[in-house]
Amino acid sequence: MTAVDHQLVKRFRQDAGDRIAEQRRLDQANNVTPMSTEDERQYARAVIAQILEEYARTEINAGRTPLDAETEEQYAAAVHAALFGVGRLQPLLDNPEVENIDINGCDQVFVGFADGREVKGEPVAETDEELIELIQVLGAYSGLSSRPFDSANPQLDLRLPDGSRLSAVMDVARRPALSIRRARMGKVFISDLVGNGTLAPEVAHFLACAVRARKNIMIAGATNAGKTTLLRALANEIPPHERLITVERALELGLDTFPELHPNVVAFEERLPNSEGQGAISMAELVRRSLRMNPSRVIVGEVLGDEIVTMLNAMSQGNDGSLSTIHANSSSEVFNRISTYALQASERLPIEASQMLIAGAVNFVVFIQRRNNYQTGGRLQRMVTSVREVNGVDGRVLSSEVFAEAPDGRIVPHAPISCLEDLMQHGYRPTGTWG
Known about the structure:
This protein is α/β, with parallel strands linked by helices. It is about 35% helix and about 20% strand. The protein contains 13 helices and 15 strands. It has helices at about 5-30, 35-60, 70-85, 90-95, 130-140, 190-195, 200-210, 225-235, 285-290, 305-315, 335-345, 350-360, 420-425, and strands spanning about 100-105, 110-115, 120, 155-160, 165-170, 175-180, 215-220, 245-250, 265-270, 295-305, 325, 365-375, 380-395, 395-405, 410-415. Strand 14 and strand 15 form a beta hairpin. Helix 1 (about 5-30) crosses helix 3, helix 2 packs across helix 3 and helix 11 crosses helix 12 (about 350-360). It is elongated, with a radius of gyration of 25 Å. The N and C termini lie far apart (about 60 Å).
């Protein structure tokens, strides 16, 4: 396969972009209805084909060998990706086995695969400036509102069209840095997670019944442990007639993209301030807003700050069946993490008050972790290793670990479930005995 000359791709992309922009201007001048996104993509393909044809003619006239059909196809795909995709990142995003992409400057690219391999990848841009331009384009066209990326706004978080999560920074490191976490499982069900070993069958059955019984569940784990994928799977146990409102920093859950599973979904995304510092809408405000919009359930993608108090208040005031994720290193650490966030929130809740709020709001904490599974040759495995039930408060949150990891690595029932009768009314049938 012939290597693509990226300077040539850049030239073709500039030419195609100019021609498409000119067509837009003509349409506007003649009061023609603007092209839809799909129409523009089709038009771009025709423009790219025309440019490549002109290039071949130039090469022949100069006595050089034109591109063969296969190479021409590669150039057409590369130019189209540069116009509408993510340029030289596109092949990595098109690879279903790629799980993480870390970029420390345009030529320092590290690719993590689903089987745990980590390899150094090809440069994604010619210069760091070009990398910044690529990130700026992504910020302009992803999510619900344009997200600037420049010296005044040196941080960027967004969701790519394929559902991957992108995080970028500039001016706080020697070179611009970018991380992409792939959303490899968009439509995911609890049965999928049983199949790949993330959930033990008994735990999967328990969680499905807990969702149906409208229990408030927090999913905890470290970065890249699989919290969001598990949340999606649990959300797919919610009956389709329920109205869901999701609140996120950057759109990632994508429950509104599967109307056959959830026809009535509103997806809220935090809005950053503009260059004058105006127009910001915080997660806490969006959680408050969601409660006024007749939700059956509110799902908070990731709790990272002062929205925790608003969310816990919502959970404890009758908005049952809520789901959310939080960073923590164990199921028991979640309560201290929530108290820390509540202490930092504008309400400045003292620890005793936040512990009471947790006890009245959260029913279960599910802990998921990412570890090497030596039984499968060291392959990385995501596993739910603990489920903790909140039982009350006595100065601190009282809880019991209803599922825990046995010495042999199996996840087994560990303590009696206080709300067992309620779960059994929603189909739960315990198959194990408590230790």
